[in-house]
Amino acid sequence: MPIPEYVADLREHVGTRLLWLPGTSAYVLRQVEGRQQVLLVRRSDNGLWTPVTGICDPGEEPDVTAEREVLEETCVQVEVERLLAVSSLIPMEYPNGDRCQYLDHAFRCRWVAGEPRVGDEESSDVRWFDVTDLPPLLPRFERQLAMALADDGPVLFGKAQRVR
CB within 8 A of 105, min separation 6: which ones? Predict the structure, then answer.
């Protein structure tokens, strides 16, 4: 995965120490012939299917990040409909020793235009899946997708999201 320029600049000063970074997860939905579909990407680093995720640029609003990341990674234009959850993810360490912890903002998004295709090196595949025929997803993504599919629901924060 490419390292954003501002994170690379920070790394020059802090080395591999833990960085706290705001990020987003985008659950892009559309209806096709009465079937609900979700847009997923296959990550090139670990092969897992996930919603589009990304790091906020300095000063960028998280909803804008979600829309930008979807366009960059899938060539699909979306509009954020609502915030689903805000949660602190567990600290992680990358193969190069860099450590990060993300404050994830999960959003439900509506497909606006474009046919999905791999837009950058972060993904090896991108496609629509019927929500009744999904590839395996991590539990966090399953919970948030269920929230995205609900017509309306509360926004969950941290602890409340882990309980569900």
Answer: 22, 23, 24, 25, 62, 63, 65, 66, 83, 85, 86
Question: Please, what sign has the CA dihedral across residues 86, 88, 90, 95?
Answer: positive
- Is 126:30 a contact under the CB 8 Å cutoff? no
pLDDT tens for each residue of 67-125:
999 999 999 999 999 999 999 999 999 889 999 999 999 999 999 999 999 999 889 99
Nearest in space to 27 (alpha carbons), one of 121, 163, 158, 153: 153
Compute the distance between CA of residue 74 and CA of residue 125 in angstroms, rounded to an integer: 9
Q: Could you give the dihedral angle defined by the CA atoms of residues 161, 48, 133 and 106, in that order, rounded to the nearest 10 degrees?
A: 30
pTM of the predicted model as reported, rounded to 2 decimal places: 0.89
Q: Read off the pLDDT of residues 6-57 as tens digits, 9 standing for 90 and up.
A: 888 888 999 999 999 999 999 999 999 999 999 999 999 899 999 999 999 9
